[in-house]
Amino acid sequence: MTDPAHGARTDFSGTMSYGDYLRLDAILDAQAPLSAAHDELLFIVQHQTSELWMKLAIAEIRAAMAAIREGRLPVAFKMLTRVARIFEQLNSAWDVLRTMTPSEYTEFRDSLGASSGFQSFQYRAIEFLAGNRNAAMVKPHAHRQETAAMLEAILDAPSLYDEALMLLARSGIATGEPQRDWREPRAASEAVVAAWATVYRAPETYWQLYELAEKLVDFEDYFRRWRFNHVTTVERIIGFKRGTGGTAGVSYLRKMLDVELFPELWRVRTAL
After folding, report:
1. Strand, helix or coil at 36?
2. What are the sequence ranges of the domains in the chain?
3. With contact defined as beta carbons under 8 Å apart, do 234 and 244 qualify?
4. How much of the chain exceeds pLDDT 70, in percent?
5. Thinking of the domain 37-271, which architecture would CATH place it in?
6. How many CB atoms lie within 10 A of CB 144?
7. What tens digit of pLDDT does each residue of 84-95 get?
8. CA angle 257, 46, 146 (to 5 degrees)
9. CA distances from residue 124 to 134, 183, 250 in whole angstroms, order as listed
10. CA–CA separation, 22 vs 104, rounded Å?
11. For residues 116 and 47, is the Cβ–Cβ distance under 8 A?
């Protein structure tokens, strides 16, 4: 059956509708506030939608890594651009959460128990995939064997930044990167700064490497803004209280602001 005025179908018995395709029943039934507080629904929706965006970011980062490895750089550029825009969306979400006041959060905070965004395995996967490796951060997920195994597998393989550095080497630009255990955090290197400087001093010669560098910087730029907005939102709502998951709250989050995903790409700007 169709709407005669617009030609739109109106009878979906026996066929797939918009809600069926998106499984909206499952998604919209997934919000289950544990208190009577009005703002708990906001809190749940904010974090659930953020996890959905992170799911997409993980898929795009993995695909970009494969494209870099296979030399399909224009494809990788598209995916990395999308990752940056995903973090732009995640940044905007903090603006909505910041409409909640400390008094309103207090009404349902006890309902959270020990749950905390610190325990987001997808956030941890994004950090591991990008190159911020810390095997100790798998421990909060040890109670979920499949999740812990997924994070361990990421640690056992090169990161996004490792793939970029290996591409530099394959392109004839020495990076001085030693063979290492992918699980271990890598230290920033002056040799890698010099390698990126070679690219930035001759972009017309190394255009695709130059563009890759800027796509990575764009990603980290939005990622840093997300972290900063996280700190600001938490401080605005709970001040310097400890986090529900046991972290030091704002103090812990501020330390995370100093973490660099692609350190030499920031340091090369001073060297140029």
Report:
1. coil
2. 37-271
3. no
4. 95
5. Up-down Bundle (1.20)
6. 12
7. 999 999 999 999
8. 80
9. 9, 14, 18
10. 32
11. no
